[in-house]
Amino acid sequence: MIEGRTREYPAAPREDRSEVFHGHAVVDPYRWLEDSGDERTRAWTAAQDALFDAERAAWPHLEKWRIALARLYAFPQSSAPRPRGDRVFFTHREPGGEHPVLLVAGHGAVRPLVDPLSLDPSGRTVLEAWHPSVEGDLLAFQMSADGLEDCVLRVVDVATGVLVDGPVDRVRRTPVAWLPGGRAYYYVRRLDPRLNPGEERYHRRVYLHRVGADPDDDVLVFGEGREKTSFYTVAVTPDGRWLSVSSTLGTRPATDLWLADLAGPADVTGLDGLAGAPGRPRLRAVRTGTPARSRLHIAPGTAPGDPIWLRTDLDAPRGRIVVTTAADTDTAGAVEERWRTLVPERPDAVLEDFAPLRDPALPRPLALVSWTRHAVSEITLHDLADGRELAEVPLPGRGTIGRFATRPEGGHEVWFGYHDHVTPPRVLRYDARTGTLETWPCPAAPATAPPTRTPGPSRPPGVSPASVPSSSATLSPAPEPGSVTTTQVAFPSRDGTAVRMFVLSPYGVPDRRRPAILTGYGGFGTSMTPVYTPQALAWVRAGGVYAIACLRGGGEEGEEWHRAGMGPRKQTVFDDFDAATDLLIGRGWTAPDRLGVLGESNGGLLAAAALTQHPDKYAAVVCVAPLLDMLASERLGMGPSWRAEYGSVRDPGEFRALLAYSPYHRVREGLPYPPVLFAVADGDTRVDPGHSRKMCALLQHASAGPGPVLHRLDRGVGHGAGAASTQLALLADVVAFLARHCGLDPVGLP
Fold first, then answer.
1. Sheet (strand 389-393) strand order
2. Which residues form the Peptidase S9A N-terminal domain (predicted)?
3. Which residues fall within 8 angstroms of residue 692, CB to CB, at 6 or more apart?
4. How far is residue 429's CA from residue 426's CA, in Å, rounded to a whole number?
5. Which of 47, 74, 88, 725 is the most buried (most CB within 10 A)?
6. Can you tell me whether residue 33 is helix, strand or coil?
7. 165 and 141 in contact (C-beta within 8 Å)?
8. Does residue 101 contact residue 111 with C-beta atoms inside 8 Å?
C-alpha cells in the first residue's frame, strides 16, 4: 500500500505495454481495460461496483440531497411547438415523469402520440427526434434504446396512430426533410456495416425514401466518395421547391452548403412515382471549401431571383446575416462576392439564430435575431429589407433562449424556450404584429372519443391512437429562488485574456470561504450559458458556492474564442480554468480544502486536467463520461470525428500537445491526489467508458492521497438523454460525493 493511503482497491494488473509515436515510446499499462468484453475487465468492473456501493453507503446525507434535487426537478417542461397544418406538435414532461411525451393538439383535443414509457416500461427507450410532415398528417419519429443513440425511424399516421412506414435502421437523430404530400422524405443513413468493418458508426449518406418502401431501395442523393466522418443535414422548403444539403467533416468548424431547385430539371428519374428532380437533384454549391460555419434560410414561395439568407461566420467570427439569391449560387466565380450583408457582425455579441417573418398582417417584412452577449441571450427585431434594427425584445431575465420555431409557411409568430440559473425552462411566444412577448399557453384538453382505426400495419407499443387521454401542460410558477444570487465576474487568464465566470452564491459577494463547485466545458464552440441547474440551486441553498467558467474553446465570444482553445492550443483552456480557480480562492469565495471540480464529457477532460496539473488546489473531482487518454481517443468511441477539435497523434506536433496534457499520461506515482469519482455509462457510444476504467485503475495504483478513487457505472444508458430518475440518481451521487469531501452539510435544505 502506498504511504498515506487508507484503503485497498480492486486488483488491476499492470502490463508491460507501450506504443511508439514518432519515435517516442509511451507506456500504457492498463490498455486491457479498453476491452469491455475481456473477462478481466468484467471482474474489475464488478469489484469497482462493490467498492462504490460500500463507499456510498457511508455518505451521511445522500437521501437529503436526493430529496432536494427531486423537488427542484419537479416542474412541467414542454418543447417549443411545431405547427403543421391545423395541428400543433410538442413534447411535454409532467413533474415526476420519466420522459417527455410527444403530444399533438388539434380539432379541439390534445393527445399523446408517442410515449417512450409505454414502449418500454423500464425507461431505457428514448424519443430522440421527431418531424411532422408539411401537412401535419404524418409524423416521423426516432427511438433509441439502452443509451446507444442508434435510432430506429418510423412514420405514424397522426389521426389514427397507425404505423405506415419503418422501421428504418442505421440512423442517428437524422434530419427528416418531408416533401409536400407526405409521399417521401430525405434523410441521412449510414451504409451497411458489412461494407466497412470496424467503421460502423461512420459512412453516412443522404437518401430519398418513399413512405412504405423498403429502405434498401432508397435513392442515394449525396455523400458518395466523401470522408467517412462527414455529417450531413438536409432540408426542403415547405412548398417543395428548394432542397438544401450541408456537410461538416467531423466537428470541424466549417460547413459546406449545396442547393437544388426541385422544380427544375434533373439528371435522371428518381423513385417510382417521384420522377425528376427529387430523385436526382442538381445540387449547386452555395459555399464550399472555406473554414466557416453557415446555415441557409429560405422562405416558401422563393423564386430563383428572390432573396435567400445565410447565417455565417465567414469573415465575421461573431456571425452575420447575408443576403443572396438562388440564381447567384448557380453562376461561376466567388459566390460570396455577390453576398450583401443584412445584419452585420457585432463586436461584443455572438449571432445565434435568425427568423424571417413575412406575413400580410405585418406592415413590412421583419426578422427576429438572437444573440448572446458574454453568454447571456438577447433578441433584436430588424427590417428584413435593409437590416435596420427596429427594437430590442425584452426577455424575462439574464438567461438563455433556445432555437426559434416558426410556422413553415411563414407568419408573425416565433416560439422559443427560455430559462436561467434559477428559472426552469418555459416556452415564450413573440407576436410581431403587436410586439408582445408572453408565456406560451401550452395546450391542454380532456380526452376525446376514439375514432375508428383504419386498416394498416400494426402499431408498435408507445405509438398512441387518438383515444389516449391527454395530460395537462399548464406551466407552473418557477420554484422560489430563495437565497441564490448570480454574479458574472471577469478576470485575466495566464496570458492576460479576459475570461468570465458565473458565480451562484447566497449573497452575491464572498462573505466567507464556503464549500464550492467549479465547472466548465471549453470545447467544440459550446457556450456555458445561464441554464436552469438543479444541482447548483441545491448546493447554494445549502450554503455553498457554484461557479461556471466560460473558457476559451467554447463559443461564448465567437469562433475566434473557440479556435483559441482548439488543437495545440488546448492548454489555454486549462489555464483559463486554473485562473478561475485562483480567483475563487484569492477573492475569498472558497479554499482549496473546500473546492470541488465537476465536468462532463469534454468538461470531464477539463476536470481531469485540473486534477493532474494542480492536484493541491482541489478537495474533490468528479468526471462524468470523460475523455482521459488523449492518445487513444482516435480509436475509442467517436474519437475520429474529433480530430479537428483535439488534433491527431498522426501529426508530430499535435501528438506532443496531446501527450503534454493527456490526464492519463500526467498521473505521477506517489502524489496525494484528492478524492475522485468517475461516472460512466455502459451504453456510451460517444466517449468510450474505457477512458475512465484506465484512469481509475491508474489513480488507484498511483495516488498517495487518502482517497477514495471511485468508479460509478450506469447500465442501460448512454451519453445522451435518459430517464429522469436515472439522471436524478447520478446527480444525487455526484453532489453527495462532492459535499462529503468539500464539507457542505445539507441539513438546512427545505
1. 350-357, 366-373, 376-383, 389-393
2. 10-440
3. 623, 625, 626, 628, 678, 679, 680, 711
4. 10
5. 88
6. helix
7. no
8. no
Q: For residue 194, which phi and psi values (nearest 5 degrees)?
A: -70, -20
* Coil, strand or helix at 692: helix
What pLDDT, on the 0 to 100 scale, is given for residue 198? Answer: 87
**Whole-angstrom Cα distance, residue 658 to residue 655?**
5
pLDDT for 282 beyond 60: yes
Residues 588/581, Cβ–Cβ less than 8 Å = no
Does residue 479 have a pLDDT over 50?
A: no
Report pTM. 0.92
Distance between CA atoms of residues 114 and 156, nearest Å: 9
What average pLDDT does range 85-98 have in this prediction?
94
Q: How far from each other are the two terminal CA atoms of the chain, in whole angstroms?
A: 43
User: Could you give the percent of the chain with pLDDT greater than 70?
Assistant: 91
Over the stretch 377-405, which tens digit does the pLDDT of each residue have? 999 999 999 999 999 999 999 999 999 99
Other Cβ atoms less than 10 A from the Cβ of 435: the count is: 11
Asked if 707 contacts 567 with a C-beta cutoff of 8 angstroms, the reply is no
Location of C-alpha cell 458556492: 545
Mean pLDDT of 411-417: 96
Candidates 382, 426, 439, 381; CA nearest to 400 is 426
Q: Is 39 exposed, middle or buried (0-12, 13-18, 19+ CB in 10 A)?
A: exposed
Helix (H, G, I), strand (E, B) or coil at 54: helix
Under 8 Å between Cβ of 400 and 418: yes
Answer for the pair 98, 724: CB distance below 8 angstroms, yes or no: yes
Phi, psi of 440 (to 5 degrees): -70, 125
- The Cα-based distances of 577 to 262, 494, 580 in angstroms read 50, 10, 5
User: What is the sign, positive or negative, of the torsion defined by CA atoms of 530, 536, 538, 540?
Assistant: negative
pLDDT class of 444 with cuts at 50, 70, 90: low
**Confidence class of residue 2 from pLDDT cuts 50, 70 and 90?**
low
pLDDT 10s digits, 514-523 = 999 999 999 9
- Separation between Cα atoms, residue 722 and residue 744, nearest integer Å: 28
Pairwise CA distance, residues 96 & 113, whole Å? 20
Residues linked to residue 437 through DSSP beta bridges, in sequence order:
430
Mean pLDDT, the chain, whole residue set: 90
Is the distance from CB of 534 to CB of 492 less than 8 angstroms?
no
Q: Are 506 and 540 in contact (CB under 8 A)?
A: yes
Beta bridge partners of 112: 103
Show the cell assigned to 551.
473558457
